[in-house]
Structures are given as structure tokens and as C-alpha cells.
Design brief:
The chain has twelve helices and nine strands. The chain has two domains: about 190 residues, 3-Layer(aba) Sandwich (Rossmann fold), CATH 3.40.50; about 80 residues, no CATH class. Helix 1 crosses helix 7, helix 3 runs parallel beside helix 4 and helix 10 crosses helix 11. The chain is about 45% helix and about 15% strand. A seven-stranded mixed sheet has the order 1-9-2-3-8-7-6, sandwiched between helices. Strands 4-5 form a two-stranded antiparallel ribbon. By secondary structure, the protein is of the alpha/beta class. Strand 2, helix 3 and strand 3 form a beta-alpha-beta unit. The longest helix is centred in the N-terminal third of the chain and has 29 residues.
Amino acid sequence: MSTAVGRSGTEAWRALRLPMLLTGVIVLGVLVLLIAGAARTSGPFSPDSAEPAGAKALATLLGDHGVNVRGTEDVQDALDGDSSQTLLIAPGGSLNRSDLLDIAKAGWGHIVLIRPSTRTLEVVAPGVLDASATLPEDSRSPDCDLPAAVKAGTATVSGVSYSAPDSAITCYGDGINHTLIRLESGGKIVDVVGSPRTFTNAELADDGNAALALNLIGTHPDLLWYLPQYDTTGFDDEDDTSDGPPLVPPDVRYIAWALAFAAFVVAIWRGRRLGPVVPEPLPVIVHAAETTEGRARLYRRSRARDRAAAALRESALGKLHKAHGIPRRAEPTAVVAAIAARTGRDPVMLYELLYGQPPLDDSALMYLSHQLDVLTLEVRHP
């Protein structure tokens, strides 16, 4: 008749249900806090990002000057606007042509396109073309009569440049192509900006970048800051500027953090359950000689002559220190001198015997053991 030594299913459930419940509650609470405190937007040029490539400084500056900034990643928010509001479309992501047409017809009073794609230019800013030329980073004067640029003065611009129709206002360029284009048609203003770095946290304080951003974007009391996302319906052969959707969706990081925290809690709980080491008496008496022989067999099997020799010398030195009253921390030279005076042996030979190199083979190890026994006997019985 066998006796069960493990827990039954019922016992295991009774032991685990409370820790599992507590862990579940903690994970749920963390998820709620992450979701409640999460920013509405994320990534480069996000109004909630404090990274160098983010634009939280610009969003804060606009808010300090009475502009209500609302960030979003939902395209439906960009389809509902009126003439008293500004829409800023950040770089990145991908929008299909139908969404762009709806945005253009939404009635926004002012649309700001930051490094737009070719498709976006065709629909929202017709006539503006990517010049396929990149302006090197430099402090440039506006060289135009746009009030926002004239008030700001010089700005540090770089990146994509554009060509524009004669009716457009062109600023900050090299005389041929420009990185800031303004179109006005039917009471609607469309600004095309090819230098997003100018308005990021890293460069907003340079030159007149902050003044240019404030004068250019803060034209209405309400600003919708839209960061386009990746959608499979938004890819076609007409636009090659998109980098494609990210391999890992941004929301996955919240789940990953929650799982990591849950694993940490479980690790602490299991660690506490293990408790400290508890000594337990052996059920049988093991003689010291048997333990010594067992350890010697292990040394022999692993050919650990150095460890065996060190153990023999340590044992002999312990007996010698006790016989002569030599402190345990005495220098080897002092130990050898004291033993040589007592036994009359050559100090050089004693040093080699007590502190020399490990033996090279088993016979040398046996010889060392025999010599140490003789030495301890000489000290014990002079």
C-alpha cells in the first residue's frame, strides 16, 4: 500500500487560490493605472513625448499662450473640424486617399502638414511638390513676407524642401526650393513644413524656432494634434514614402509591463514561501573517517591534487600552530622559522613542504602526506 507524498488537487488549489487572487488584483490595478495615466499619443513628434524627438515643449508653449492642444491618434477626430480650429498632421503613419479627401473637406480653418507624404500633398496641398532635395541644417532667414516667419526671424531648418506654385508663399529655403510653404484658398490656410526637427524638444529653443512655431501653429484657440497610425488599407503603390507598420504595436508595452510586474510579485511570494535554511539532524551517524575517505575519493576522481594538498597542508599547519603557540595569521616566514628552530630542519625544505607548489602526480601527493605526518609527529614528540 503506497502513501501519497505530494499535494492533492484540492490541497494545491486551497494553497494557491489566495496568492493567485492577490496577484490578479494587483495586475488588474496596475493595468487600470497604466491605462488611466497613459498619454493619448506616443512616438516621435508627439505632444505628450518628452524625448528629444518629441514635441511636448511645443505643446506646452502653445498651451501657455491660450491654445487648447488636443492630441489624438484616431482618424475620426481629424474628420470633424470647423473654420475656428487648426489641424496639425504630424509625420509618420499612413492615410489612404479617402481619409485625406475627407480631411480636406472637413472645414478646418488652418491645416499644418509636417513633412507630409506625396499622397498627402496631392490631396491636401495641390501644387506643392517634393523637390527631392534635402536642405542641410543651418540657421536661415525667412526671405518672405509671411508675418509668422518675419516676426520669428532666423530659424534652424533642415530636411525636405518643396517647390510651390506662384500663388504660394515660400520661406526658409536656398533660393530655389523652400521648407515652409503656405497656400491660401477659399478662406482655408494650408502650411507645409518639411523640417519637423525645428519644432522638436531638442531644437525648439534654438534661434527663432519657438517664435516661428507659436506664430505659425497657434493661429486658433483650438488645435487638434493628429498623429496618423498605420493601417493596411492605407498602403498602395502610389506612395513609397511610408516605412510600413511597426512590428510591435505600441499598446503591447503596457501588457509587457503588467506581465513583468506579475512575475516579480510571484517571485517575491515564492521566495518568501521557501523561507530560511533549517538544519536537520541526519538519521544516521556518519563517522569522520568515512567523510574524509569520501572526500578523498572525490578529489581523486576529479584529479584535484591541488585541493587535496591544500587540505593536507592546512591540517598540518593547524597542528603546528597549536603546538608552538603561533598565531593563525602569522606570516609563513615566521612559521617556518619557529618550526625550524624546534626541529632543526632546513628552513628552505620546510617552506617547500608547507607552502610549496601542488604535487604533479599521485605518488608526489602520497609523499607530501607522509612528510607532513612525520613533521607533525616530530613536533608532538621531539
